[in-house]
């Protein structure tokens, strides 16, 4: 089974693109912290790609530095470099994304805080989008 789940921050400005068939896609880098016993924390960077309505929702509500949860699958590909050498690439193909903060500039605080820190409620914006681009509720259930 090929499934990954990462929580991290978007590391670049989002730039939505469209395929020749008109399907939206969004490439972004995700910075994910990793705790190490010896040295504290390190940051791993993962290249990610979201498609369709998920990409559109991310482009509309997120920006560089936004904290998100990404669920998807790792995909490898190869191509020929400029000098004819074979190159390899690994990307996370996003199936689902959860927005873990309010859109910047909305409300009093950037992060949603409630009495129960396990359930965070967001008002007026979609929180979770699956690979079909469906919005899945206004709360993040745990």
Record keyword descriptors for this entry.
single chain, 142 residues, mainly beta, OB fold (Dihydrolipoamide Acetyltransferase, E2P), five-stranded mixed beta barrel, 1 helix, 7 strands, 46% strand, globular, disordered C terminus
Radius of gyration: 17 Å
> With helices defined by DSSP (H or I, 4 residues minimum), what is the helix count?
1
Outline the biggest β-sheet. Answer: 5 strands, mixed, barrel
From the helix content, strand content and strand pairing, which structural class follows?
A: mainly beta
The side-by-side strand order for the widest beta sheet comes to: 1-3-4-6-5
Q: Overall mean pLDDT score? A: 79
- For this structure, what is the CATH homologous superfamily? Nucleic acid-binding proteins
Report the order of strands and helices: EEEEHEEE
Percentage of residues in helical conformation: under 10%
CATH topology: OB fold (Dihydrolipoamide Acetyltransferase, E2P)
- Number of spatially distinct domains: 1
Per DSSP, what share of the residues sits in E-state strands of 2 or more residues? Answer: over 45%
CATH class: Mainly Beta
Residue stretches low in confidence (pLDDT < 50, at least 5 long) are 108-127, 136-142
Would you mind describing this structure in some detail?
The structure is a single chain. The two termini are 23 Å apart. The chain has 142 residues and is mostly beta strands. It is 7% helix and 46% strand. It has one domain (4-130): Nucleic acid-binding proteins (OB fold (Dihydrolipoamide Acetyltransferase, E2P), Beta Barrel), CATH 2.40.50.140. Strands 1-3-4-6-5 form a five-stranded mixed β-barrel. The longest helix has 10 residues, at 52-61. The chain has one helix and seven strands; from the N terminus they run ββββαβββ.
């Amino acid at each position: 089974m090929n499934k990954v789940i990462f929580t991290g921050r978007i590391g670049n400005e989002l730039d939505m693109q469209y395929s020749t068939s008109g399907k939206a896609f969004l490439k972004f880098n995700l910075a994910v912290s990793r705790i190490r016993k010896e040295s504290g924390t390190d940051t791993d960077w993962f290249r990610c790609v979201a498609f369709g309505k998920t990409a559109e929702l991310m482009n509309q509500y997120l920006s560089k530095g936004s904290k998100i949860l990404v669920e998807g699958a790792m995909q490898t590909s190869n191509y020929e470099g400029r000098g004819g050498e074979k190159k390899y690439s690994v990307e996370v193909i996003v199936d689902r994304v959860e927005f873990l903060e309010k859109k910047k500039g909305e409300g009093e605080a950037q992060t949603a805080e409630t009495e129960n820190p396990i359930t965070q409620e967001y008002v007026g914006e979609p929180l979770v989008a699956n690979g079909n681009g469906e919005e899945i509720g206004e709360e993040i259930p745990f």
